[in-house]
Amino acid sequence: MNTKKIMACLLMLQVFLLTAQQQQEYNVPQLGILDVASSSFDESQRNMFSDVLRTEVFQINYFRIVERGMIQQILQEQQISMSGLTDDSQLLEIGKLISVEKLLVLKIDEFADTLVMNIRVIDVNTSLLDFTQNVFLEDKNQIFNAIKDLVIQLQMFYVEGDLQMDPRDRQEIIRQNWITLGADEQALDFLLEQNIAPADFLEVRQYDITFTVQDYIKMHNDGWDIQTIKTFFKENISYDEIVTALNFGINDVTNYQESFKPWGLTFAEYLDAYANHVVSPEEYEEYKKGYDKDKIILSIGGVANSLPIMNSEFSFLLLNAGWEHYISDYQRNRQKYSTEKGLYLMNGVMPSPYFQMNYYVGAHPFYAKVAVGTVAEIFMGGHVGLFAKAGMELNGTFEFSVMATFLGTQPSISYTDMESRPDEDGYAEILFPYFGAFLTYKL
Fold first, then answer.
1. With b meaning 16 or more CB within 10 Å and e meaning fewer, what string describes 173-199?
2. Which neighbouring-strand residues pair with 442?
3. Omega into 198 within 30° of 0, i.e. cis?
């Protein structure tokens, strides 16, 4: 045999033995990863999740991972399906068949509107559960991020328990994990100086995958208790609502759980009640139904058929006094509806009854508004018009809106001199469309 080939083979063998010796020295476990189990997703989706899981575990470069094809071959010989296995006795039997020390299982299932992800690692030799963790998701699009979080938690569990690992290697792993979790350089310096482990952050983030490293640092700096935050998260309360509650001085969800929640009220409604000094769910239900259901409308504005107004062929001042009635019971819903009726005063004196339907969308205190309606000047010239409006409401009190009157009839007298008739000299027609802008105060 060629001498160079023999030397190359010996070198490869030496590298292999050295690698095996290092793995034995550091007691790196051999890991088998089963396909993701789920009754909520089809086979193609489960396969995708399984591929992502294996890739993430491989990239942490800690375990000796058994190749998937080898596991499949052994299970096929034993006529065992690789997915859908959750019984511990079955899992132990599989672990022994494929000759691994640890067996990893990830299960994803949907309950109501929440996805629950559970990861487990079973020690095949001791038949004990080595590691387990949950993540709760409201958004299916966050599954891949959640898998990454679970793998980081898995890595930190074994790294922290590996007493033979060089402390410098452990510190580098912690640093890389913080970077993976979204920490910038400034945040990274703070986290490492404070000796905060990624596992501490992930312990909170498991309840809300949108919870960021920056949120965690703010929580830490503000002195908020991690157990309190977790208690809120367990109630599916968003981080923004938690911040509002803590700023109000609400550090416990017990009152919400015992009073407002049994009435089917959300935590956001509980905070609204607290902010408005409503102490019971019974009072709050009444408060919602009667909350500013009717309002007086006062507006000032003007209309013109072109800009600038001084060059417009048709323009006049428009005042408005009306009454708005909300059809929706509660004015702080994401959507709300109302009717509006009253008088437009053309040039401040000419009364014109109007009626319009309003639709709002947004979140308190800002709502976008669109409306359609009709106006009839019936006292002077007999003009009728159809209009549309768009605007923004602030705090249920102030509103700015623009109007376009796109269709209508012509009055029997000219509004420019209040006497000229059609076909007479001096008669000026209304030009469509004409536009208006209004500032409105509601009380």
1. bbeebbebbebeeebeeebeeeebebb
2. 297
3. no
List Cβ neighbours of 60 (8 Å cut-off, separation of 6 or more).
Answer: 151, 152, 154, 155
Q: What one-character DSSP code corresponds to residue 410?
A: P
Q: What is the CB neighbour count within 10 angstroms for residue 83?
A: 15
Strands 114-123 and 102-111: antiparallel
> What residues contact 268, with CB distance under 8 A and at least 6 apart?
241
Left (φ > 0), alpha (ψ -120 to 50) or beta: where does 84 sit?
Answer: left
SS (H, E, C) 116-157: EEEEEEEECCCCEEEEEEEEEECCHHHHHHHHHHHHHHHHHH
Report strand pairing: 30-33 vs 102-111. Answer: parallel
Burial (0-12, 13-18, 19+ Cβ within 10 Å), 32: buried
Spatial distance between the Cα atoms of 223 and 220, rounded to a whole number of angstroms: 5
Compute the 3-state secondary structure of the chain and give helix, strand, coil in percent, each to the nearest 5. Answer: 40, 30, 30
Q: Which domains occur in the chain, in start order?
A: 25-178 (3.40.50.10070), 222-289 (no CATH), 294-442 (2.40.160)
| Residue whose pair of structure tokens reads 């309003």 in the numeric block | 358
Contacts of 283 (CB under 8 A, 6+ apart): 273
Render each residue's pLDDT in the chain as its tens digit; 443 residues. Answer: 455 445 444 444 443 333 444 444 445 678 888 889 888 899 899 889 999 999 999 888 888 888 888 887 877 777 666 554 556 677 788 888 888 888 899 999 988 778 899 999 988 888 888 888 888 888 888 899 889 889 988 888 888 777 677 888 888 888 888 988 888 888 888 888 888 888 888 888 888 888 889 988 888 888 888 888 888 988 888 888 999 999 999 988 999 999 999 999 999 999 989 988 888 998 888 777 666 678 999 999 988 877 676 667 677 788 999 999 988 867 777 898 999 999 998 877 788 899 999 999 998 789 999 999 999 988 878 889 999 999 999 988 899 999 999 899 988 888 777 788 888 888 888 888 888 899 999 98
Instruction: Name beta bridge partners: 53.
Output: none
Burial (0-12, 13-18, 19+ Cβ within 10 Å), 379:
exposed
